[in-house]
Amino acid sequence: MSLSARTQLLLFLISLLSIVGRSRFIEEDDDSDGLYSLLNMDQKRQSADFIFRRPLRCLDMLATDGYFTFVASQPQLACAAFVIAEPDEVISLELQDVSIDCTAGDFIKIFDGWVLKGEKFPSRQDHPLPLHQRYTDYCSSEGAGATSRSSQNVAMVFFRVHGPGSGFTLAVKKLHNPFPCNIMSQSPEGSFTMVIPHQRRNCSFSIIYPVEIRLTALSLGQAKSNDIGLQRQVWSDCSGSGDYVELLGGDGVDTSQMFPVADLCFSLSGLAQMKIGCDNSVVRLVSAATTSTACPFSTDCWSSTSSPGAERTVCLTSAL
């Protein structure tokens, strides 16, 4: 991930947390370069054998393999670490050297996904597990809660530590995922193909930027011919067609709460373009498991000069 993209993502997370009053829990280490030292972590790798280590902050974003150690200097009551990998990776998390007092109200919880402003990514409709199974609670698991593996390229750790000197080490390792599903993009620019191989499931690709989306060579099962429109077509039109693609926009991360921009219920050999001027833009693929479904697309930053022929929409979520 580029430095500018990581900077934007970090500032986005800080702004969201500040809305709910959690930015006051950010800790700064006087011996560090501050929060922006997180942005250069990839440059610190010297060889394939290099093991990256650094302190874990009360509010943190982790985008690399390594060991991250949190030690409380004062009571920290609402901390969170956001972990993100590449689109074709999942995340293995392991808690080590844990020294907290669960009986005094301390806790460490790992979540399979992200939680922002009370919204969860992936949504209940898109994640393969029920919500209660997506939480791993160290204090209630008695050892079994020491490890967790995400279902997609993002995961999150919530923790509360009261006693000075108490803490833990979080080991992060990214693993290859042959069939990525439910992806949080680290950049507004790039190309990707979502593939669902004969499975009844939903997959979303979320970009936390206003972007222009281009779809080409869309392959859908039980397809029928319909034209793409600015407004959402009748839901039964697409839901009855087997597989389909939704383009969504909104200010949160829960796809079930986002504004529907367009539905595509048909296979596509040409080019479809759409500009989504929202804080979060999503390509969502719904498969009925009848065939192997593929959705190739590319995204670019939305600017007034990019692809003047593309259809446009504005984000209406905040006005509803």
UniProtKB/TrEMBL annotation:
Domain Corticotropin-releasing factor binding protein C-terminal residues, every copy: 183-290
Gene Ontology molecular-function annotations: corticotropin-releasing hormone binding
A Pfam cross-reference name: CRF-BP_N
Transmembrane spans: none
Main location per the UniProt record: secreted
Claim: Lipid metabolism is one of the keywords in the record: no
Keyword field: Disulfide bond, Glycoprotein, Secreted, Signal
Secretion signal span: 1-25
Intracellular or extracellular location(s): Secreted
Domain Corticotropin-releasing factor binding protein N-terminal intervals: 51-175
Biological process annotations from GO: hormone-mediated signaling pathway; negative regulation of corticotropin secretion
InterPro entries linked: CRF-bd, CRF-BP_C, CRF-BP_N, Sperma_CUB_dom_sf
UniProt entry tagged with the keyword Secreted: yes
GO cellular component, one term: extracellular space
Family membership noted in the UniProt record: Belongs to the CRF-binding protein family.
Function: Binds CRF and inactivates it. May prevent inappropriate pituitary-adrenal stimulation in pregnancy.
Descriptive protein name: Corticotropin-releasing factor-binding protein
